[in-house]
Amino acid sequence: MGSMTAALDALDAAIELVGAADIEDVPAPQRFAVLERLETAMRRQVAISHSQLTRLERYEGCPPISIVVADVLRISRGAAKRRVRDAEQLVPRQTLTGAELPALLPATGRAWNAGLLDGEHVRVIQRFFRDLPDHVGPVEVEKAERTLAEHAQVMRPDQLEKIADRLGAHLNPDGTFSDEDRARKRGFQWCGGQRADGMSVGKLIADPTLRGMLDAWLAKFAAPEPEDTRSHAQRQHDALAVLVRRQLGDPKLGKHNGLPVTMIVTTTLQDLASGAGHGVTAGGTLLPISDLLRMATPTYNYLAVFDGVTGQSLWLGRSKRLASADQRIMLLGKYRGCTAPGCTVNGYNSQVHHATKDWKHGGTTDIDDLTLACKCDNLLVENDGWTTRQLADGQTQWDPPPDVPLRGGTNNYHHPERFLPKDDEKD
């Protein structure tokens, strides 16, 4: 600990010296060389930081390392996962017996540790191997990695990307991909959150089977109608909405976390009365009240209404009573997602959690003591010594066990309105 602390103290002092220095004291032609040295130094620090991630150990009471790193460094969980993944690929590994193995990307790792590569260079090389088909042999893979690492040291990432594309075409000239190659690339995800206008952008990489099925569906339900003013893209959007709408609420779908597979929306009496504002789905999607009213709350959806001032539950619209499921629906309206500090898991993917005493330890299913927690955070309470309790304002307090380097607290992520100043706090 002493040597590391001393090294960090020296680094802090050196950064202070560099920050106090004036680049104008350097002759103009040499100033770019100064920036280059600064860039190399920063890259080396990043590489060193990444290498330390492989030395971190998970101990009792801690969630996965990436989550701890995200909270301690105050970076996004996505960024933390990328750092852990980079460390796993760029830093030499050890076997269970302690023997050292080369990094998965050894040449790239050496250049990275020397401060010669930026994170964008690494992304290009990682993407190249992710898209490379499995039939390319290990010898060619090793040569390709070494070649890309060499070019990355003298090229910008956008230039390197062109080299990677040419190299990929050379190694797979016939464009041959196996079923496993295609299956590995398939996926759908939303590209960020909702935009300011409430719309969302998604990215779909469809395998041939899904593409064929969608083509057949869209041929019927996205076909233009007489006097149809919609564009081709708009018709396809509406056809997909028909496809999903026909499935939601079907008993054949079973249940998800104890509830029918359907849309659950919560809103306030005040917003309903004014016809403005929005409802919130259990997935965290904001649904304009105008859209909600047009839906007329079909029987396959659930609508929970709260008082916007007191938070008191007022009404639950549904086709039939579901006993304990009704409690869960109101919990979705109250909490909207996992209540653990900083957790972004939405309500659909959260579980009911006993805040004071778990059911298996004698806790009762009292709505005032129920809250929401994702599977990962629920296990922190069950297995790793975390505790939860309900506060007077109805929020759930999470407290870590001693010696865990995380702060406890409540979670406002699913309630962005809490970040706004109250009327009596405004200037």
UniProtKB/TrEMBL annotation:
Residues 414-427 have a biased composition (Basic and acidic residues). Pfam families: DUF222 (PF02720). Residues 391-427 are annotated as: Disordered. Residues 33-331 form the DUF222 domain. This is Maturase.
